[in-house]
Design goal:
The protein has seven helices and no strands. By secondary structure, the chain is mainly α. The longest helix has 28 residues. It is elongated.
Amino acid sequence: MADPLSIASGVAGLLALSGAAYSALSTFLANTKNAPRAAHEILTEVSEMRLALFSASKLLGTFDRVPQSRKKMVQLEHLILVLTQVFDTFSDLQHLLARFSHIPKTLWARVRWAWLHSRTNDLMQRLRSHKSSLSLILNILQWYANTS
C-alpha cells in the first residue's frame, strides 16, 4: 500500500507536468492569431485540473488529520489510479503539443488543430473525467470539516 508522502510526491510531479502544459498552451494561444477554440478549452481544463491537484497536494500535506472514518471511505489505491490516469493524459497532451512547437503559429497551426479535432476532444473529455474523479475523492476526504 502506498503512503500519503509518496502520493504527495506524485501530485507534485503532476503539478509540474500540468504547469508545463499550461505554459505551452498559453504560449501557443498568445502566438496564434485566431487560435482554435479547442486550444482555449483544453487550457481551461488544464487550469481546472491544476486547481484539483493543488487541493490534493494540500490535503495530502494534512492527511494525518483526516478522520479514520473518512480514510476508510477512499482507499489510497483509488487516488493512485486517478493520478496515474491524469499522468497518462498529460503525457498524451504533451505529445500533442509537441506537434505544434516546431510549426509557425499561423493558419497551418489552425488547420492541424482542426485535423486533430477528435484527439483534442478526447483529451478534454479525459481531463474532465479525471477532474471529476479527483474532486469526488477530495470531497469524501474533506467532508470531515463540515461534519466535525
